[in-house]
Amino acid sequence: MSYQVRFAGNDLHDYCKILEVKRDILPQRENFSKEVPTMWGSLYTGYHYAERIITLSIAIVSISKEDYMNKVRALADVLDVANPSRLYISDEPRKYYYAVLDGSTDLDRLFNTAKVDINFICHDPLAYSDDWKAFIPDSKGIFTFENGGTTSTYPYIRAQFKADACFFQCTNPKGDTVLIGQPKDSTLENSSLNTTVLDENCSDSGNFLPLSSSLLTNGRIMDGKLGVGSNGQGLVCTNFGSLTDKKWCGGGLKRSIGDNLEEFEVEIDVIFSSQGENYSDGGTIPPTTPPPSGGGNLGTYKVTTKAGLNVRADSTTSSSVRACMPYGTEVQVIEIKNGWCRHNYKDLNGWSSMQYMAKVSENRASTRSDEADSELGIIEVYGYDQHGTTLFINQIYDGNQYYEFTEPKVFIGTEKVLGQTQGCPPPRKVVVKDDDGKESSYFDVSGVFGEYNDCVGKFVIRRERAGNGTYLWSASFSKYENGNVVKRMETSNGFSSSAFPTGALNSFGIFIGRYGSEFEPVDVMVVDHIRVKRLNPPSRTETNLEIFGAGDVLDINFQAGTVYKNNIPFLTNIDIGSEFFSIPSGRSQIIVRSDDTSVEVTAGFQERFL
Is 196-279+371-535 in the same CATH topology as 136-192+546-609? Predict the structure, then answer.
């Protein structure tokens, strides 16, 4: 019997024959104890499992010396990884370990055949299930979990608020509790941190007005058009207009807030991704991530939130919940409407928010052959006061013709306050000779650089008044993958300058463009959501502080010990006595509570095996 093994995305059985897989029943166990003078023996205090070792006995069979060396080189290439990678073995379907090669790989060669034992070390000795589970609580807020793994695991919990609330709490039967905020005191009045004055999901261009080009930065040509994307959610450039060389050309729209805000917090969700191929030393390689969520087409989509995604009776958050789909679930979308998709799940037909789903391409990779390195594009979201003065600009763009290099930036007035400090290296130089042997050179596409490419991201910019009357600003940009923050840049909290504008925030301008006609535009450029909050001054008396509002989404990762509200870190609001707990193997329960009695909560986890 031979085995099939997949490591770091490569099928090892395509390179060699896997004869045997050796594992211990359990990793090596170390017990701890201490001596007590008044008792015999010692007092047992605990134990620790060491790393797990998995050994593959393999054979390399070839037909010639050259074929032998080619197979050895190919196998070496797939085994050489920088970090622990997923290791799948066919005798444990849909389970994987995180492993790296360990020790020597001396070959026992006879002619054109060789045998060797390959040792993988799993510094994390646990196996993980490919399949996630998702749960919803009963009417009393009680979750009943079924953990089929052989050891404990950690939940992901998401709460979607329908009304203002002061707290959210999760408690297990032992009394371990995670508390965000504080329960209400019935003797005190309520107050809120902020008030949402605009929650624009960018699904209806009728909410927007034409934007004057005079309100944009110099070098912008704006005679194109913006509109809602074909998936019904997010503003995209539907027509870039006349193309002028060496100018950013595109379309723009304006959105009024309906108020003048002195103190505010603004969240802007964007998607920016080139979906072509990039140059590498070995030729061109496809992008490392699939196209961002949305996609605009019917087809297969997967759930990207680890707490699970609700299936509703209709395409609104007020409709009833029929089921909860686990993370990674793939469904066939049969209708798209206003940022919602209709699909079948098990024996149900219902609707789910596309904000938490990602399109799965048919071949699991980009099908484009364009060079993503040379695609250029820009998204800018301006904040204006009532006189049209620019207060801030949130910008994400790729302006490098040789590299795929996405740069998020934030300007206050005309001063850049946030951005990457490292620029691109020199582009790849190509030297050619003509028929007479005369050399000439040119620069050509050079690959991928930077950490914000293929980006689903969020800008947050905040201004509040200090006690002395000056304005304090802060700004951040976060990149997300599968709903988790993977990269973040931010300013220090509360900086100021006499050069910064002081007008009240009144409206937004949105510009999406490409660079002239010489270069293709970035494939995916979307402004997906804009939320504006008025920051309320602190109360002079003790009150019940409402830290959540209708529409807020709270995410709690019990394994990482992180708390996010609307994808913004929110750990400062957690009670000091909170303790992140695990879910034991077997059947167990936890209870969730909030003063928003209509809050919708989902939970998900991944089973683990020792």
Answer: yes
